[in-house]
Amino acid sequence: MKKIQKIKKKIGKFENLKNFNKITKIMLKIINSAFNPQEFTEVLIMHLLDNSTSKALKKACYFNTFCLASFSLVFDSYGGSNTTIGCSWTQFSGNINAAIDYVALKIDDEYVSYQHDSRAKATYFNFYNEESAEKCMNAPIYYNSIAAELYQTVTLEEETQIIMIPNTNSLNIIKLVEAVNNTFTKNGIIYDFSAYKNKNNSKFHTFGVKFLFKKIIYSFEIPTFLEIDKFVLALTYRESVLCLQETHLSEKTSLLQLKGYTCVESKKNLTKTGSELLIAVQNRSSWGISELRNEYSWMAAKINSKTASGKENEIIVINIHTPHLATEKKIMKKQIELYLQNIISKNENKKIILAGDFNMDTKSTINWVNKIGVGLTRMPVFNSRVSRLKKIKMGRIIDHICSVNLNF
């Protein structure tokens, strides 16, 4: 009898374990649901700000772009006009070359020229006059039975900033627009305001809101945070935090100096391995930075700032360049796992960013950060600028940004 009870108890534990595993898998599917850029479209929401008539979105296009290493440092000059039409690559799946060629073929203008921009993941079509460009915008082009999304471009005025709100923290879009209006319109001009909408249900996404802003009150400093009721949202303009890999600086070379940034570096005796790393914060962002740890293929730094109300915020930023050799890769992953687990064991609400060249595709990256067990999630990509490219064909995304507790 006792033996039967023991067996039943073991079976019960096994059943509970199976149920727990099922629940865990379901939760992981919900928490780490795949973000598909083809399901979302960027729309103009200026009408929520100034009660104007809803208009088509215009975007700044990027020319003369220079990128250092594989992550985040970009020097731009912005161009665009009423005669330039953009077509984003991220709306297409499969063969991007074929999709762009098809769109170009269907544009009824034999004199149109076009250029590819690998940073913006877009192709720009240049027309002779506004009438030709407007004709193109008004003539739908269907690829695989889906209308290709084209957008007009705009030239940014001097000193105009593109301000991003990476995560609206589940805040209602109208409340967000009101808060931006209250903070910014008395100090400058908002030219454009956009957000991402789901194509199927027309609901707004919580990531990727941005607006174009130019100061008219020059004493006004763009805040690092936007405080709305109990929410505190982070704002970024230009690149507030940089994580660079493969700087190719050795221990014998001088410090890398980036105008307007404070840097901490990781340099080795040999530069051919590409393991040299850098984390930097923009001086005008009000963030401070200090180095925490420096290993062969990863480094950690602490950045800290204060909100307008005096609340202190601290983020641990980890920049990685995963080695190709399996043994070195295994060592690096184990070091980071233990490092992050130790941080969270002391403070489960600690804000963490893990970013860089993972040398892993999206699925492998999500599996690894889930294994670490500290709550990291991979941040969704709207207009991927970190894909491995061959001409204009998008390959695997191996550069990623993961975070936890970034609900300021």
Structure description:
This is Endonuclease/exonuclease/phosphatase domain-containing protein. The radius of gyration is 24 Å and the shape is globular. Residues 13-34, 63-78 and 270-274 have low confidence and may be disordered. It has a six-stranded mixed sheet, covered by helices on one side. It has a six-stranded mixed sheet with strand order 19-20-21-22-26-23, covered by helices on one side. A five-stranded antiparallel sheet has the order 1-11-12-10-15. The chain is built from seven helices and 26 strands. It is of the alpha+beta class and 408 residues long. The chain has helices at residues 2-31, 46-50, 96-106, 130-137, 173-184, 326-346, 362-372; strands spanning 40-44, 58-68, 73-79, 84-88, 113-117, 122-126, 142-143, 146-147, 150-154, 160-167, 188-198, 207-215, 225-228, 231-234, 236-237, 241-245, 261-266, 277-282, 288-294, 298-306, 312-321, 351-357, 377-378, 387-390, 393-397, 399-404. The protein has a domain at 239-404: Endonuclease/exonuclease/phosphatase (Deoxyribonuclease I, Chain A).
How would you summarize this macromolecular structure in one to three sentences?
This protein is 24% helix and 37% strand.
